[in-house]
Amino acid sequence: MLATYTPPRFEYVRSRDQSAATPPHYPVIIVGAGPVGLAAAIDFSQHGVKTVLLDDDNTVSVGSRAVCHAKRTLEILDRLGCGEPVVERGISWNLGKVFFKDRLIYTFNLLADEGHRRPAFVNLQQYYFEEILLGRLRSLGHTDLRWMSKVVSVATEREGVKLGVETPDGPYALTCDWLLVADGARSPVRHMMGLESKGQVFRDRFLIADVVMKADFPTERWFWFDPPFHRNQSTLLHRQADNVWRIDFQLGWDRDPEEEKKPERVIPRIQAMLGDDREFELEWVSVYTFQCRRMDTFRYGRVLFAGDAAHQVSPFGARGANSGVQDVDNLVWKLALVLEGKAPERLLDTYSDERVGAADENILNSTRSTDFIAPKARVSRIFRDATLELAEKHPFARKLVNSGRLSVPATLRTSPLNTPDVPRDQFHGSMVPGAPAADAPITRDGIPGWFLDLIGNRFDGLLFAPSERFVAPDAADLAALAREAIPVRTLIVVPNGRGISVVPEGCEVVEDTVGWLDKRYDSRPGTFYLLRPDQHVAARWRRFEASSVRAAVQRATCGDLGRSDHVPLAAHAA
Amino acid sequence: MATLITDPNLSAPDDFYESLIDMHRDLDDEASAKVNARLILLLANHVGDLDVLREAIRLAREGA
Which of the 8 DSSP states describes residue A336? Predict the structure, then answer.
């Protein structure tokens, strides 16, 4: 097995902490060196926060597991300094095809417009993904990564957390101010704390097979409903790096998962799909059950949960690892501000609120996809097949076909961190407060680049200034904002080929090369956006005013001017 | 003369589909068929235009 890939074995190194007289103390400890824990450690490193990262194993992911990395994940990885190697090593795709029985019924494009650095998706085996993140983490040098270190006990105290860790050299103890739990869907730490992830288990199973073969299928997502080679069930095909193909077969509930994993059961299924004469090698097989569940809240005092440990979805839609990376994106800047004493602890409640809202969106989409792919009742099956039949000829029905609503980032519309628009400002388009900032091609100092590369990790301002007179009167205020305790650094957006003669201190000028920024942000001369360190829109105005920007930063960090009466997002969602 | 819309026209397709499937929850086949019939009649009255309805009937019959 694993013919194309030999997993690395990382050396267990005894830590000095193991001989300490009293348990050593750290500001942040992360449990689980999967995609989520690794991304968190990188993000903390970039904020100058040293962490200890504990993992109970000594290698990367066994099997390809999370394969489809969504555009937003790639953008977050760009911010974390490791997007490019993932895109280069992986396979980019934008197109999906849907088949019903023996026919192609339609093709869809997930990236309908141009002017984005990243494609809709990159497929890359989870082990490569983790190796790339590990490389980045090591180059930053702020993380104490401890392999073969299994957390066996958790004691939460008012001012911190005490951990028992088991190693090949025996047990030792650690304490921390904050514990980030990213130890996966089964989450041993969650169990140790007596907490539950609750939801729905669907009575259906899928077999995942990684197959090595030379195939000339295009790099697209292919989904079959009721194909001739797998009657009454569905099948999904994805291409990964190294000529590895992911094939998912719906099994139904009655099959014995252990039996179905045996090569003598799997190989004939694949032969039926590919035709008898194609050569292939089976690399990895797994069986999973559909489930959609989450914890009630992702923060328990000093313990924060992220990724599959906090929420789990059926895999159609690539909403697992992608949403875990978005959890990190949301959490780390907040915790960094709390650690610096620049924001109160209740800012971390908004991590839970915002990401619980996102998890519910993912669970809703995943549940609907599961219901469409695996209809429970006869009448559901009749409607599904009728939808598929109509979809071949009639575009309206394609909108109803659900082979997985593929991961898009959550717009945090109801977040208390947003400053609502002033009605008379009359903004249009999708860059509402709470939305993740859209990318666009820009030019800086004559060099072409991408907008999202210039923002993030701090609060950014975005001032649309077609001429000098939209900058000059506010130059002193813009410079002052860049010197605040929580600084706001403003990018001054000018039309292609233009410039600003006197750039305020702490600001930078970018040219809107094709005009996409202008369009996507529905700008008018003088429009100002405030963006959070995770690149989500915090506030926007038609006219810059330093006092409004300061108030919006306070609000986005639960500061003094922000409202103290906390309203959970879930209350709005109901 | 009005024509049948076959391009996407639903404001929230996934919400609609969920409601449609939900309508049948806990019903047996005969009860489901009756509910479907009532739904078609209600929608037909809403559409009103006979040409449009006949076009829909023709397209629905095509796949049978």
Answer: H
Burial class for A293, CB neighbours closer than 10 Å (0-12, 13-18, 19+): middle
- How far apart are alpha carbons A370 and B59 in whole angstroms? 28
Nearest to A400 among B13, B27, B32 (CB): B13
Closest CA in chain B for residue A381: B21
**In Å, what is the CA distance from A358 to each residue of A320, A488, A503, A511, A555?**
12, 27, 39, 33, 20
Every domain of chain B and the residues it spans:
28-64
Chunked into runs of 10 residues, chain A (574 residues) has average pLDDT values of 82 96 97 98 97 97 92 98 98 94 93 88 96 98 96 93 97 98 97 96 91 87 95 94 93 90 92 85 91 96 98 88 97 98 97 97 93 92 96 96 91 97 96 98 96 97 96 96 97 95 94 97 98 98 97 94 44 37
Q: What does DSSP assign to residue A341?
A: T
Q: Does B49 touch chain A (CB under 8 A)?
A: no
What whole-number distance in Å separates Cα of residue A536 and Cα of residue A459? 10
The DSSP code sequence of A507-547 is: -EEEEESSSHHHHHTT--TT-EEEE-TTSBEEEEESS--HH
Report chain B residues whose CB lies below 8 A from the CB of A402.
14, 17
Q: Which two tokens stand for residue A235?
A: 């099948």
List of domains in chain A: 16-90+123-197+299-364 (3.50.50.60), 423-556 (3.40.30.120)
Nearest CA in chain A to B62: A390
CA distance A185 to chain B (A): 27
Name which of A379, A390, A406 to mutate to probe chain B: the one with the most chain B Cβ atoms within 10 A of its Cβ. Answer: A379
**pTM (2 decimals)?**
0.94
Q: Which of A167, A270, A256, A158 is nearest to A205 (CA)?
A: A256
